[in-house]
């Protein structure tokens, strides 16, 4: 149970650091995350993710030209709202946009049509933005009411203390970590 709780905490913090690096557009910190993630993917036998992280790291450390390296490291983020801390991962934004457009196609989906939509998406977005500005249409704020996390945090901490998850108790183990390596 101790190994499980420790690994869960470690991976949760790794994910949090990755999100923060993306949110603030810190390309160098994101690359450090990919180095650690490569080891995690190898350990958990996630071969496709491991290959993706290896190709990225090999590219920026050895294969790409200095210009390509700079583009890969620092142009991975998109800020749709403006302001500090509002960056999103560029690949994620493209995936969301493609998925929403493909859903609108309904049964008329073909690879040719999907490729054409992907190539014209930014042009359509710019036209829509200019039209909204000329018509004085204000964009939606995108803000949600801030949640009070005190009660949830207190409940989680209480359960962690009661369960003694960070204590090594003989006989207690998670099914994934039954045999402890020494």
Report on this model:
There is one protein chain. By secondary structure, this protein is mainly alpha-helical. The chain has one domain. It has seven helices and two strands, in the order ααααββααα. It has a two-stranded antiparallel ribbon. α1 runs antiparallel to α2, α2 crosses α3 and α5 packs across α6. The two termini are 15 Å apart. The mean pLDDT is 82.
Overview features:
extended; mainly alpha; DUF6589; 182 residues; DUF6589 domain-containing protein
What's the topology here?
Elements: H1 2-23, H2 27-43, H3 47-63, H4 66-74, E1 77-79, E2 87-89, H5 90-105, H6 111-134, H7 150-163
Run of helices and strands: HHHHEEHHH
Number of domains: 1
Distance between the termini: 15 Å
Class computed from helices, strands and strand pairing: mainly alpha
The parts where pLDDT drops under 50 for at least 5 residues are none
Helical proportion? 55-70%
Number of strands: 2
Kindly estimate the percentage of residues that lie in beta strands according to DSSP: under 5%
Pfam family, one: DUF6589
Domain DUF6589: 20-143
Protein name: DUF6589 domain-containing protein
Organism: Mytilus coruscus (Sea mussel)
Task: Describe what is shown at a glance.
Residues 20-143 form the DUF6589 domain. This protein has one domain. It has helices at 2-23, 27-43, 47-63, 66-74, 90-105, 111-134, 150-163; strands at 77-79, 87-89.
